[in-house]
Specification:
- By secondary structure, the chain is an alpha+beta fold.
- It has 2 domains: 61 residues, no CATH class; 130 residues, Beta Polymerase, domain 2 (2-Layer Sandwich), CATH 3.30.460.
- Helix content is 44%, strand content 19%.
- A 6-stranded mixed beta sheet has the order 3-4-5-2-1-6.
- It starts with a helix and ends in a 7-residue tail after the last helix.
Length: 203
């Protein structure tokens, strides 16, 4: 049997998952804080970890939004494929919630690219007349070190895309996920093509 603290932690994880799925909040810490407030458990010191919230998020989509969420992931991965094909020469990887199948309608498609010259990436965007803005993305490169990487944001087919640029040396190892503290899941272009090829949206 669960003790009171474990039950409350489980409830907060479940409510956090609902908030992420239905309100489109990407930040797990923000979702957990909102969930704790809703459940009047802000000061009880029993917040779940991000991995526990992600498990509840999988369950939420499976139970309440299975068909629509399957279609959403298919659609977002199809959009990601188009972008990755544009940057085929730069070892693109699909990462984040679209790769993990936890994306909501408001999620950003995150793609990691490899280049020792960011101007080459910008040239591709300008070639296809894609308006972009630059930003910095801080990622964990191991258990102790955070590092800032150059990124580019733009909108494509009403979907927000975020590119993060790694040097060839940096791209050899996946950054550490802030959800489970393990190397990020990265999907290569060829793997994504295989995942999408036999699939059809759920009707």
């Amino acid at each position: 049997m669960f003790d009171t603290t474990t039950k409350l932690k489980d409830m907060i994880a479940q409510e956090s998952a609902r908030i992420i799925a239905e309100q489109g909040i990407e930040n797990f810490s923000v979702a957990k804080a909102k969930a704790a407030k809703i459940l009047n458990a802000e000061k009880k010191g029993c917040l779940p970890n991000n991995s526990e919230v992600e498990k509840k998020l999988f369950q939420h989509f499976e139970i309440f939004h299975h068909k629509s969420h399957s279609n959403l992931i298919y659609s977002m991965r199809s959009t990601a494929l188009i972008i990755m094909q544009l940057f085929n020469n730069y070892r693109p990887f699909l990462v984040g919630s679209v790769a993990n199948e936890t994306a909501s309608k408001s999620s950003i498609i995150n793609i990691h690219l490899t280049s020792d010259n960011s101007e080459e990436i910008i040239h591709v965007l300008e070639k296809y007349k894609i308006f972009y803005r630059s930003h910095e993305r801080q990622l964990k490169i191991n258990q102790k070190i955070n590092k800032k990487f150059m990124g580019l944001k733009f909108n494509y087919q009403d979907t927000n895309i975020e590119l993060t640029i790694f040097s060839y040396k940096e791209s050899k190892h996946a950054p550490i996920s802030r959800i489970d503290n393990k190397p990020m899941k990265r999907i290569k272009l060829k793997k994504l093509e295989k995942l999408l090829a036999p699939s059809l949206p759920v009707i």
